[in-house]
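Handoff note, outgoing to incoming analyst
You'll be picking up this chain. Sequence as last confirmed:
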Amino acid sequence: MYPRRKAVTPNHSVPPGLSLMKFATLWIATLSFFVNVTMAQTEAGSNETFRQATAALREGRLDEAASGFEAVTRATPTFAGAYLNLGLVREEQGKFDEAVTSLKKALVLNPRLPGANLFLGIAHYRLNQYEPAAAALRLETKQNPSDAKAWMWLGVTQLAMEQPEDATVSLDKAAKLAPNDVDTLYHRGHAHLLVSKLSYERMLHADPNSWRIHQVLAQADSEAARDVDAIAEYQAAIKAAPQQPGLHEELGTEFWKMGKMEEAEAEYQRELAIDPHSLLATYKLGSLQVMTAKAAEGKPLIESALRQDPKLKEAYYYLGRAEMQLGNDNAAVDAFKKAISVVSDPDIIEQAWYQLAMVYRRMHRTEDLQNALATFQKLKDEAAEHRQLSLEKRRAAQGQETTPPADPPKDPNHR
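Most recent structure output, in case you need it:
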């Protein structure tokens, strides 16, 4: 187990040109808002027709809704809400040309009608008419800047126009307004990946021999668990830029992942020789020294890293291991409890409970020992069950019916 840098590596599988995006679907959930448009503008005879058409729209009876709204537009041709709702029905029916006509009429009657430009933009988008779609969506975001869906659809349209840099701006705004919207998060991530890919392509074109190229390739290899290749690329980058901060730290982590502790320690030390203030190198070197039974050397480094950044939550686990090796049982208990309370990594939490149990055993705190071991075993069983369920789901998706045997029990002190 090694301290992990939480970073996103570019996904080089993204296609270079995304001209069409057929994955977007109509924002049906918002219909209930727009069908409540005031009927004050309608003539008395049209009110009941409008109500019935609205009810039909809500219930998905689209042909009936369309007939009703068309009747209202004939009886009250100045009622923008009827044209808006008719446009929504046409979009749901897939009649996007007719939707555009109705929505444009609604906007002529009421240029600031909420949602009209949004759905006009969507209709143009579905017709692959990206320029008018973007124009309508920009108007919607200008008139209603807090509308997350308008920003999302503008970003989606900009992606279709092969403008990923502009799309990231729009989708970042959408994500800020609706941070848990899955569609927005998907499109935002895709846009940023495209921008990342473009950046690396421009980098390669600007200087094919740059050490940055080797660094990018090393990071991609690392994320793909091609550690031997990652090491080779980091070494090539270091050869090209031997004093560049960060490279030795990243190479050290690759050595640690492969169990080459001496090589990893040497790289972290080289990193600190180049950059004595490197937080990650300080933290990782201290953690590695603790894991190789050099607690007296590693503990001060971990404490230094925590003073610089208390948000290094996993450091509390390694600090607990250091205190444990040094015989500071009470301090070890405090550190492991802190790790359990703040760390999100389930593997670290599981191991913290196990190490806490070992400290309690040494302190002869029998009841605490039993509780800690019980918690550790519960977490271990839950993790094994989760792995088994995930494996069965993958096998089912692949059409495999047999269930493999459960993993054999492992030494909890061995990772």
